[in-house]
């Protein structure tokens, strides 16, 4: 039996421009999580540190980042742990100046041939371990999935694949996504396949055994990669594997919905939002409920953003039956006319069209409210 720590999709160096002023701090989170994974590998006395693609977010990361990774892998190799990695779709080897073509990673094995001609054979604790993995190239990787087939009976056989399990709702499959099925993967007869590319944890198993696993991204890169993030600690024996999830993120992303019914202005709403305060949380918050007056979302953002590491607000509150809308509906003003016309449109709208009308109604009333009305 050998022990491995399996990770993938670290996306070191990702720009994260959507985070604005927090992007630099968040990029450093990704590096700290990489270093935490190294520590986990050492603490758990693993033999191999597997990275199943997209260690970097770009095939040409900056040299400072490359140096940090090289130092990290050196730290592992000095403790008898062998890093094994494959390029992914983001840090691919297509261009001549790809990071894996231009830089060495001493102590690490980088599996970057376009197909597996022969698995890489190493010795771990006196056992033969055979490593299967490749770097996809459109012109040279025909039949690459077939080349993952186990070559012999003796030893432990481990595959690394940056690809998409067919049936996942996350992907529109492209050729470079290397779509596969569990039945296909089982024909390879490997003892364990370390997967990458899918950003949420997924254990691929049947009634008999576990075959492969996606650890997911160890740090959430975008909303949808919410909640705890994991690496995998796997104990691998011939045709048997035990998988343990290990939580490893620096910060958590979450989607929540908050009912603001009864709030009369932005300060009321801000007081309710402040009850969710968490300076380490990246929160996408959908605001719902019947409110008494239109909210200026920009002002509300300014009143609340300091309570979180990052806050993204989406306004889905309702105003059609609010006290404000009823009060101005009969006015002989532009805004009164707007409310009456909007109600006519809503009466004829389908459910989908109704959502659009509600959104337009809300946005226009915010402007009327901000400027004190719409006198004719």
From TrEMBL:
Keyword list, A-Z: Hydrolase
Record domain Calcineurin-like phosphoesterase: where: 2-200
Keyword Hydrolase (UniProt): yes
Signal sequence extent: none
Single Gene Ontology MF annotation: hydrolase activity
CDD domains to which the protein is assigned, alphabetical: MPP_Mre11_N (cd00840)
Alphabetical list of InterPro entries matching this protein: Calcineurin-like_PHP, DNA_Repair-Maintenance_Comp, Metallo-depent_PP-like, Mre11_N
Keyword Hydrolase among record annotations: yes
UniProt xrefs under PANTHER family: COMPONENT OF ATP-DEPENDENT DSDNA EXONUCLEASE (PTHR30337), PHOSPHOESTERASE (PTHR30337:SF7)
Protein name: Calcineurin-like phosphoesterase domain-containing protein
Organism: Geoalkalibacter subterraneus
The organism's taxonomic lineage, starting at the top: Bacteria, Pseudomonadati, Thermodesulfobacteriota, Desulfuromonadia, Desulfuromonadales
């Amino acid at each position: 039996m050998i022990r491995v720590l399996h990770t993938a999709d670290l996306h070191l160096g990702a720009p994260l421009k959507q985070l604005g002023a927090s992007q630099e701090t968040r990029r450093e989170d990704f590096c700290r999580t990489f270093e935490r994974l190294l520590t986990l590998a050492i603490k758990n006395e693993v033999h191999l540190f597997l990275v199943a693609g997209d260690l970097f977010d770009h095939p040409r990361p900056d040299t400072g980042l490359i140096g940090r990774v090289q130092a990290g892998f050196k730290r592992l190799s000095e403790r008898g742990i062998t890093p094994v990695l494959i390029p992914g779709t983001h840090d691919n080897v297509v261009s001549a100046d790809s990071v894996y073509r231009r830089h060495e990673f001493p102590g690490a094995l980088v599996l970057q041939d376009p197909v597996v001609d022969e698995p890489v054979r190493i010795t771990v604790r006196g056992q033969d371990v055979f490593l299967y993995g490749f770097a996809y190239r459109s012109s040279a990787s025909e039949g690459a999935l077939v080349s993952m087939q186990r070559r012999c009976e003796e030893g432990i056989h481990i595959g690394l694949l940056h690809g998409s399990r067919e049936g996942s709702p996350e992907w529109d499959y492209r050729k470079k996504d290397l779509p596969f099925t569990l039945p296909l993967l089982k024909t390879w007869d490997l003892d364990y396949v370390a997967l990458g590319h899918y950003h949420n944890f997924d254990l691929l198993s049947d009634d008999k055994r576990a075959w492969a696993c996606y650890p997911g991204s160890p740090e959430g890169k975008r909303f949808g990669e919410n909640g705890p993030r994991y690496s995998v600690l796997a104990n691998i024996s011939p045709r048997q594997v035990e998988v343990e999830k290990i939580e490893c993120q620096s910060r958590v992303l979450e989607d929540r919905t908050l009912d603001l019914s009864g709030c009369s202005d932005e300060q009321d709403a801000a007081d309710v939002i402040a009850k969710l305060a968490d300076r380490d949380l990246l929160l996408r918050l959908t605001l719902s409920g019947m409110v008494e007056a239109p909210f200026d979302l920009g002002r509300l953002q300014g009143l609340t953003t300091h309570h979180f590491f990052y806050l993204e607000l989406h306004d889905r509150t309702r105003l059609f039956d609010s006290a404000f809308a009823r009060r101005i509906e009969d006015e002989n003003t532009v805004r009164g006319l707007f409310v009456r016309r909007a109600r006519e449109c809503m009466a004829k709208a389908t459910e989908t069209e109704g959502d659009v009308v509600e959104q337009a109604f809300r946005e226009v009333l915010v402007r009327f409210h901000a400027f004190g009305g719409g006198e004719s």
